[in-house]
Write a sequence for this structure.
């Protein structure tokens, strides 16, 4: 039995959303603590903080599914992610170049690794789409809205979403979306 969207539209939705965001922030915080511990010579703490971060990420994903944050038919999202991650490689590389020009070579070196990882994520999403080509060939929705920032495509009637609905990739409000079909 799926937990998808069980709290959406209920009195529990706001609480699940708060939990989801708290867990996502916890992921970021624990990974930051792991990095700080490493920089300060506390190597023994690094795996502990990473373990906590990984668990927080799982928790955030749980609450996202419970609230129906991402489409249950996720293939359109995977297709958008493939494009975004592939494009993200160049975007992160461009930022790394600016960081390097500002005199922060060590940070720029690491960001260049991140840029390659973003491109790799795009490759992984392409591999997933190639592995399941029939999943993407579903009938297209009658209405399609596109996020002007990241290109995420919302299929269906975006007006059926709550007023506080935001793009699942970049956080733009639904009012920013433009109908393309």
């Amino acid at each position: 039995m799926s937990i998808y969207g069980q709290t959406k539209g209920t009195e529990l939705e706001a609480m699940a959303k708060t939990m989801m965001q708290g867990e996502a922030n916890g992921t970021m915080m624990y990974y930051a603590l792991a990095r700080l511990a490493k920089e300060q010579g506390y190597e023994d703490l690094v795996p502990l903080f990473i373990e906590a971060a990984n668990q927080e990420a799982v928790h955030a994903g749980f609450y996202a599914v419970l609230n129906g944050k991402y489409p249950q038919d996720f293939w359109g999202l995977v297709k958008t992610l493939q494009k975004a991650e592939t494009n993200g490689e160049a975007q992160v590389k461009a930022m790394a170049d600016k960081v390097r020009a500002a005199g922060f070579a060590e940070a720029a070196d690491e960001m260049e690794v991140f840029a390659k990882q973003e491109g790799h994520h795009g490759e992984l999403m392409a591999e997933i789409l190639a592995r399941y080509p029939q999943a993407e060939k579903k009938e297209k929705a009658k209405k399609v809205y596109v996020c002007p920032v990241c290109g995420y495509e919302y299929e269906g009637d975006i007006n059926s979403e709550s007023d506080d609905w935001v793009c699942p990739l970049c956080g733009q409000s639904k009012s920013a979306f433009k109908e393309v079909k």
